[in-house]
Specification:
By secondary structure, the protein is of the alpha+beta class. β5 and β6 form a beta hairpin. α1 crosses α3 and α1 runs antiparallel to α4. About 17% of the residues have low confidence. The chain folds into 2 domains: 202 residues, no CATH class; 72 residues, OB fold (Dihydrolipoamide Acetyltransferase, E2P). It is elongated.
């Protein structure tokens, strides 16, 4: 099990960092790999120290506490879990399968603990599962390249669209979470990300993989006006998350009704829903029934005709 160290300098007791945004580590092959900032034992609260060019100031007082938004924190954790999940799948060459086999799936599980206010440890893997070498190392190297790519606003070479899509979600979550985030990697390196400088553009679908547009008709189940995220379920029961919806206030009025959603389709992997980006939600007309058949003319039979009819068909009753 490996640990990623995530610090939010706006929260009380977390490091206030000055120095280079990304340090270059020794011997890292990836051209965008994060490197160089050795992280030793955590610095106690109320002290200051310098670690390889990064100044860590731990003197924040109670009056400086800036609580994190719970919804934004939840979005960040989900985005991080999704990114680890997809990177692990790619590393195991299982990207095109539905759910991963359980031993590999366990390696992508993320558990979070607070080390102190403003610093979270994200533990990746299952402590009851034996390490699968070199899979863990491959995952961590890919993550190092992704974090360095975030800092440089450049898409790391070899990143597929499903992983880039997860990175894009992570960027959106980070920008809502804190103005600055420090991410420490299991190898001891670290990177500081100013979230207002993060660009989503490099992580959009590459030109080698065409954009897929989709039209989905189903019942609108959920609307979140805070994030402009919606969910629609088609007639087969498949859920689709709909993001970046223009005029979300008007779209939210359609919750519980049949709608038609058109936008850019991002297929989900594993347990993740399919997603429709830049989704336009419009009312869908219910299916129309065919033309009504005229009612048959009533039978106008005498009593004698009814008795004769019953006698002729008595064997059929």
């Amino acid at each position: 099990m490996r640990t990623y160290d995530v610090c939010f300098p706006t929260a009380a007791g977390s490091p206030a960092v000055s120095g280079p945004a990304v340090s270059r580590p020794t011997g890292m092959r990836d051209p965008f790999a994060v490197d160089g900032v050795a992280r030793t034992e955590p610095v106690p609260l109320g002290t200051a120290a310098s670690v390889d060019g990064l100044t860590v100031d731990e003197t924040a007082g109670e009056s400086e506490q800036v609580p994190l938004d719970a919804a934004a924190l939840g979005d960040f954790l989900l985005a991080w879990q999704t990114l680890i999940y997809r990177v692990t799948r790619e590393a195991a060459d299982l990207a095109d399968l539905g759910r991963m086999v359980r031993p590999i799936e366990a390696l992508s599980q993320v558990r979070a603990t607070w080390h102190w206010p403003g610093e979270m440890w994200l533990h990746v893997g299952d402590p009851t599962t034996l390490p699968i070498d070199p899979l863990e190392g491959k995952v961590d190297r890919t993550m190092a390249g992704i974090i360095a790519g975030l800092a440089a606003n450049r898409r790391t070479t070899g990143i597929t669209n499903p992983i880039a899509d997860a990175v894009d979600n992570l960027i959106r979550a980070l920008t809502r979470l804190a103005p600055e985030v420090i991410i420490g990697l299991p190898d001891g390196s670290a990177a500081r990300l100013r979230t207002s400088h993060l660009s989503r553009e490099p992580w959009r679908q590459s030109r080698t993989e065409p954009v897929r547009t989709a039209l989905v008709t189903g019942r609108l189940e959920m609307a979140d006006l805070h994030t402009a995220r919606f969910r629609v379920r088609d007639r087969e029961g498949t859920p689709y998350d709909v993001t970046e919806v223009p005029e979300p206030d008007q779209a939210a009025r359609l919750v519980g009704t049949l709608v038609a959603v058109r936008g850019v389709l991002q297929p989900g992997t594993g347990t993740q829903h399919h997603r429709i980006e830049q989704g336009r939600i419009q009312p869908a007309e219910p299916p129309r029934a065919g033309p009504a058949r005229p009612a048959p003319d009533p039978l106008d039979l005498t009593d004698e005709q009814w008795r004769q009819f019953l006698a002729d068909h008595s064997s059929e009753f």
